[in-house]
Amino acid sequence: MSNAKKDFRVDSLGVQIYNSEAELALSAASIVQKHLQQILQQKQSAAVLFATGNSQLKFLDALTSSNNIDWSRIICFHLDEYLGISANNSSSFRYYLRERVEKRILPQQFHYIEGDTLEPLKECDRYSKLLTAQPIDLCLLGIGENGHLAFNEPTVADFNDPYIVKLVKLDSVNHQQQVNQGHFPNIESVPKYAFTLSIPIICAAKKIICLAPGKGKAKVVKQLLEANITEEFPASILRKQSQANLLLDTDAASLINS
User: Fold this and answer.
1) Residues forming the active site
2) 38 CB-near residues (< 8 Å, 6+ apart)
3) Alpha helix locations (H) across the chain?
4) Distances, alpha carbon 225 to alpha carbons 54, 136, 180, 196, in Å
5) Are 112 and 65 in contact (CB under 8 A)?
6) Mean pLDDT by 10 residues, the chain (258 residues)
């Protein structure tokens, strides 16, 4: 974290601010690389949860270009997926991760949530069992415009959720965000429901790296760091996670009092 412009904590959450998104992406890739190297010195494989979205793009480019990770020993999972969408649909998270991660690194395994399953509840159970078969060594996150983590929307987030994977109805803010980011042509085409990993399984990861670059995240970041910790703003739970780090660029950090 030494090349961060600022490095501080808000409650238990580590916060690092970088001069640009490019600098943030390279630093995040370096942090992940070193963490995975340490894990692989201690055991045969490491489990990683991947996020999707525009906030991850430059970081994933930097990470998958690294030759210093033995990807054949990495088991991959992802945080969420739309219900009723095929793996070949360019708007699906499986497609995003297959093209940007799996094809580039050739991991030991990439376990995907089957969004187009005919039995969604069985799929929740199947994926939950895969996740609990080994500890999650690293969770990569972004933050939604409504403060969601994965698809834990303010309307459904539960800091003490008994479920590991569940089906949720997406709210209107999330629908609009998907359109604004270019993932769907209009709100009508955005799926109404999605699979998501729950807050407790995300927080159970041994290390959490959350990326929130860009001026569009400035208000979200301010609320995350300065408002109350509440399920009405799910990302606020990160302030209770000593193993978590929030990486910002100066645009995203422009409204916080630090």
Assistant:
1) 80, 146, 148, 153
2) none
3) 21-42, 57-64, 93-97, 103-105, 120-131, 172-180, 199-203, 218-226
4) 21, 25, 24, 24
5) no
6) 85 98 97 96 97 95 93 98 94 96 97 97 98 96 94 96 96 71 76 95 98 96 98 98 98 91
Residue 226 φ/ψ, nearest 5 degrees: -120, -15
Report yes or no: 151 and 174 within 8 Å, Cβ to Cβ.
yes
Q: What is the DSSP string of 55-89?
A: GGHHHHHHHHT-SSS-GGGEEEEESEEETT--TTS
Residues in the chain: 258
Q: CA-to-CA distance for 32 and 134, rounded, in angstroms?
A: 19
Retrieve residue 13's tokens.
Answer: 């959450």
The tokens for 202 are 């995300």
Is-contact 246 142, C-beta < 8 A? no
Using CA atoms in the order 155, 113, 245, 152, what is the torsion angle rounded to 10 degrees?
0
96 vs 3: CA distance, rounded Å: 30
- Containing 193, the helix (H) or strand (E) segment is strand 193-197
Global confidence as pTM: 0.94
110 forms beta bridges with 76
pLDDT tens-place string over residues 109-165: 999 999 999 999 999 999 999 999 999 999 999 999 899 999 999 999 999 999 999
Q: Going edge to edge, which strands form the sheet with 165-169?
A: 80-82, 193-197, 165-169
- Residue 61: which residues within 8 A CB-CB, separation 6 or more? 25, 100
What's the chain's Rg over C-alpha atoms? 17
The one-letter code for the residue type at 76 is C
